[in-house]
Amino acid sequence: MAKSIHVRVPGTSANCGPGFDCLGLACSIYNDLTLTLTHEPGLRIDIAGDGARIIPRDERNIVWRSVRYLLDQAGNTEWQGGHLEMVNHIPLSRGLGSSAAAIVAGLKAANAWLDSPFNRHQLLQFATAIEGHPDNVAPALFGGFTASITQGEKVECFTFLPRYRMRYVVAVPDFPLSTRKAREVLPEAVTRADAVYNIGRASVLVGALCRGSERFLQYALDDKLHQPYRASLIPGMYETFAAAKEAGAYGASLSGAGPCLIAFVPEKKHCAQDVARAMREKLRDFGIKARVLGMRLDTRGAHVLHHQDAQGQVSAPAAPKEK
Ligand code: HSE
After folding, report:
1. Of the candidates 101, 105, 81, 76, which has an alpha carbon nearest to the alpha carbon of residue 91?
2. pLDDT per residue as tens digits for the range 245-274
3. Does the domain formed by 4-160+298-315 have CATH 2.115.10.20?
């Protein structure tokens, strides 16, 4: 039986309102990848689940490109071809980090295949170089909430967990929205007043999550850098935020570049169902069909599920050098 590596990567919600291109969280929805590399050239890709009909099954595939990227970074020419088996649960092009999950899955699995020559911070550099911004790939790699900065070419991120338990209610509209299109509507420059508005809220959001100051969350998800410009792409967006709050959420924001909308809901209020219903109904009022997912924070990030060697022996991963 051939050696294979099986990895699981969480979906992610970037920006968290005011933290445009910097903040993100990992949530409890996952894509799985099983990777087998071969000495001979040739690629076989099997895909089940979300996007199975439209994701390319050739050299253009982003998971495969990420595998190749890592092999190149390692200077490895031994492995020329491979077999990818993808099982996708993260909705494609909806703002839940499906492309980040694909990149991280390819890097993580290829790294494990080579016995982990790179640590997670190095994988973050690679993933950001491929994705273009760190706010989805960081939580996909590390789990929890992440705050990322780029310093020249280098990306730094720290991870943290909120002091209180929350549910994350995500409305998934039945239409895709490409990140490219959602970035095209953004202005090149913003006013100082809008910058200050976001700096304050992003700072308060991180502080409030770390210290457990719940009352600040009612303001801390608001944003002036990207959501106002994207609102026309998601009819009823602000009204749906208001409906979620009315039903008991702390607040809500666009998830990444959208079109998903995410509400932060206090676990102790047991109102996730009410928030879900309110969001679905409000979007319906604006002619948008949406399914609603109730998720938790993923605190683990991308991980190797098991490693099967060429004799078919299955083992839990060795204590990763990457941790
Ligand atoms: N920060 C990015 C954006 C996330 O809002 O455009 C999308 O991948």
Report:
1. 101
2. 999 999 999 999 999 999 999 998 889 999
3. no
